[in-house]
Amino acid sequence: MPTAHPIVLGGYAPQRPLGGAPNSIVIPNEQSEEESVASNQAKRTKDYYVYLMSNVARTLYVGVTNDLERRVYEHKNSLTPGFTSRYGLDRLVFFESTSDVLSAIAREKEIKAWRREKKVGLIESANPLWPDLSTEWSGVTDSSLRSE
């Protein structure tokens, strides 16, 4: 008879096995408490992205997000009013990721404080010709390719 094996810290989980008696106890996976904590943290790990958007004139915008594909879609389709929609910044030209939100925010602030030449150098070190890095993503449209 199959039983559920939840990860429970520090003991047994008072749950019934599938089809079992009401007072049955489900034994958790054979993991130490440290392994359980690490496993739970891994499940909660998110990626955070620092990114640079640009346009034909190479105007630059630096941002941070936890969902790069969604955020690029918003920029490309001018869904939020502001700098990127005002200047038509619709090309993802650089991004980097981290699992630490505070590091991502600090990196965004660091890059924003740089002079333009240093930002251009960062972009060109990874993307020398500045093509849109999001063109292959499903769900992200390039507004410059729309038929009128």
Q: How would you describe this protein?
A:
- By secondary structure, the chain is an alpha+beta fold.
- The chain folds into two domains: 1-44, no CATH class; 48-143, GIY-YIG endonuclease.
- It is built from five helices and three strands.
- It has helices spanning 33-44, 68-76, 83-86, 101-113, 116-126, and strands at 48-54, 61-65, 91-98.
- It has a three-stranded antiparallel sheet, sandwiched between helices.
- A hairpin with a 6-residue loop joins strand 1 (48-54) and strand 2 (61-65).
- The longest helix has 13 residues, at 101-113.
- The chain is globular and about 55 Å long.
- The chain starts with 32 loop residues before the first helix and ends in a 22-residue tail after the last helix.
- 18% of the residues are buried.
Structure summarized in a few sentences:
This protein has 148 residues and is of the alpha+beta class. Helix content is 33%, strand content 14%.
Helix content: 25-40%
Structural class: alpha+beta
Q: How much of the residues is beta strand, in percent?
A: 5-15%
Distance between the termini: 61 Å
| Mean of pLDDT | 77
Cα Rg: 23 Å
Contiguous low-pLDDT stretches (5 residues minimum) are: 1-28, 142-148
CATH architecture of the largest domain: 3-Layer(aba) Sandwich
* Strands, count: 3
Largest sheet: 3 strands, antiparallel
- The CATH class assignment of the largest domain is Alpha Beta
**Which of globular, elongated, flat, extended, rod-shaped describes the shape?**
globular
Assembly annotation: single chain
Summed up, the domain count is 2
CATH topology (fold) name of the largest domain:
GIY-YIG endonuclease
Query: What is the string of SSEs from the N terminus onward?
Result: HEEHHEHH
